[in-house]
Specification:
Strand content: under 5%
Radius of gyration: 20 Å
Structural class: mainly alpha
Largest sheet: none
Number of strands: 0
Helix content: over 70%
Order of helices and strands: HHHHHHHH
Number of helices: 8
Oligomer: single chain
Length: about 200
């Protein structure tokens, strides 16, 4: 099955959807999570909204996403984005709060302003945990992939599995499950290597 051009194209489409949606989620979650964990004013303003959305199941947005974005790539990417971004914000915020107080106080004593403390103390201290959080939430993104691709999709691993279900091709369904697991493991290993490379762990 892996030599089938259509199946390979489905794999590529799925990987692109994961990378694009997860990158967009990280682009919002990382700076916002760090700001919320560092400055009380940001936490007070954004946390009620973020906390409320964390408890809403992402698949429940499928009908409205289809209304807003049609049947193209929009609803799939939006579903993958929604399923990750609010949890990632909260995790990064919690890690930012755990930055050692004495490091911040030392920087302030030496004359640093808040922006300098954020840039030179908080961000370097929290980045290793940010990468760990990204690795954890990427696994969640893969779990939403099949749901996203079932929704009005003709390409991707999830769509392939739905086609196989219609014709009772159990081998193709199992192949899709195995490929998703393999790709998830591959991305997980990549994040582990990046963590060791960047932070010398």
């Amino acid at each position: 099955l892996l030599t089938d051009t259509v199946f390979l194209n489905d794999i590529v489409d799925s990987v692109v959807r994961i990378v694009v949606s997860f990158s967009a989620a990280c682009a919002i979650a990382i700076p916002l999570g760090i700001l919320m964990g560092t400055f009380h004013v940001f936490e007070s303003f954004f946390n009620p909204f973020v906390s409320a959305w964390r408890y809403l199941p992402a698949p429940s947005f499928i009908p409205i996403l289809l209304m807003w974005f049609g049947t193209g790539e929009g609803p799939k990417l939006a579903l993958l984005f929604i399923g990750v971004v609010f949890f990632l914000i909260t995790i990064i915020m919690d890690h930012a709060k755990q930055v050692r107080t004495e490091l911040i106080e030392t920087a302030l004593t030496l004359g640093a302003n808040r922006r300098q403390v954020l840039r030179t103390v908080v961000v370097p201290a929290v980045l290793p945990n940010v990468v760990v959080a990204m690795r954890q939430m990427l696994a969640v993104s893969w779990t939403y992939l099949v749901i996203a691709e079932i929704v009005a999709s003709t390409t991707g691993i999830g769509a392939m599995m739905m086609r196989a279900r219609r014709f009772l091709h159990t081998d193709e369904i199992m192949s899709g499950i195995i490929v998703i697991g393999f790709l998830g493991l591959l991305f997980d290993m990549l994040f582990r290597l990046l963590h060791r490379w960047w932070f010398d762990y």
